[in-house]
Amino acid sequence: MPTPANRIAFQGYPGAYSNLACRSAFPGMTPLPCPSFEDAFAAVREGKARLAMIPIDNSIAGRVADIHHILPHSGLHIVGEHFQRVEHCLLAVKGAKLEGLKEAHSHVHALGQCRKALKALGLRPVVHADTAGAAQDVAAWGDPAKAAISSGLAADIYGLKIVKKNIEDADHNTTRFLVMSRRAKRPRRGDGPCVTSFLFRVRSVPAALYKALGGFATNKVNITKLESYILELFTAAQFYVEVDGHIDDEPVRYAFEELGFFTTHLKVLGVYPASPFRRTGKA
């Protein structure tokens, strides 16, 4: 039996793309499926798994809803990132034929990412909560007119056949995942390219954001991600930021010092190695 130290949690059913990301990035670990993102975070926090694989954004669909609201309160640290190429397959029960299919079941984003293909094939899209869950349902129904859009891994798990591969409309479809842990694990400064992720809230005064980010410009620190979230009273915003560099690099350190003058809250979520995908574009 796998021990908690050898488990990596993910949200979704077995065969989900998060499951595939776990197998790709950590082939020696046992993926642990969880019903929700909160459950995946809790599995690590409570010692049921050592790591969690959490999707943060997709090259087509944009950011993954709710993740940035859960991250600040998760009690976990970002220790890595992984880019997973999304290759959608049209799955059906054994014996089904492409020309006999009438419906395609999947997550709303997966359906949207295959819109042109579905129209060309004349399939009616049906929304499900999860891509792998749709595959599980199609297998249970046994109806040769119903198909699922999911991963090739889901086909293996649920005994379905791949009727058509790579039906996504864009060949750059890639999801970025964060690897989460109870313990911070920062690479040593100078060991290679790094990413620093953090949250901050600006003071509710004119030009606060401009001044807060000024130190990154003057110190030539590249900001690769900046997203805002309105707080409960709508009087100020919280920002999620990712920058190139290690927090102990002199330019990043100076930028953080200047940031501190214009913020009411600052929390570093992780300092971790940058994925080779950032350099090569290959997942």
The 3D shape can be described as elongated
Contiguous uncertain segments of 5+ residues = none
Question: Sheet with the most strands?
Answer: 6 strands, mixed
CATH superfamily of the largest domain: Periplasmic binding protein-like II
Task: Give the number of helices.
Answer: 10
Under the CATH scheme, which class of the largest domain? Alpha Beta
| Alpha carbon gap, first and last residue | 30 Å
Mean pLDDT: 94
Structural classification: alpha/beta
Portion in beta strands: 25-35%
* Cα-based radius of gyration, to the nearest Å: 21 Å
Number of strands: 15
What is the CATH third-level topology name of the largest domain? D-Maltodextrin-Binding Protein, domain 2
Share of residues in helices: 25-40%
Instruction: Tell me the count of domains.
Output: 3
Write the CATH architecture name of the largest domain. Answer: 3-Layer(aba) Sandwich
Order of helices and strands: EHEHEEHEEEHHEHEHEEEHEEHEH
Features:
3 domains; five-stranded mixed beta sheet; Alpha-Beta Plaits; 283 residues; six-stranded mixed beta sheet; D-Maltodextrin-Binding Protein, domain 2
Describe the protein:
A hairpin with a 6-residue loop joins strand 13 and strand 14. Helix 8 packs antiparallel against helix 9 (250-259). With 283 residues, this protein is of the alpha/beta class. The protein contains ten helices and 15 strands. The strands form three sheets. Strands 1, 2, 3, 4, 5 and 11 form a six-stranded mixed sheet that branches. A five-stranded mixed sheet has the order 8-7-9-6-10. A four-stranded antiparallel sheet has the order 13-14-12-15, with helices on one face. It is elongated. The chain has three domains: 4-85 and 174-181, D-Maltodextrin-Binding Protein, domain 2; 89-164, 3-Layer(aba) Sandwich (D-Maltodextrin-Binding Protein, domain 2), CATH 3.40.190.10; 194-280, ACT domain (Alpha-Beta Plaits, 2-Layer Sandwich). The protein has helices at residues 17-25, 37-45, 67-70, 108-113, 115-121, 131-141, 152-158, 208-218, 250-259, 277-280, and strands at 7-11, 30-34, 51-58, 62-63, 77-85, 89-92, 103-107, 124-128, 146-150, 161-164, 174-181, 194-202, 223-230, 237-244, 263-273.
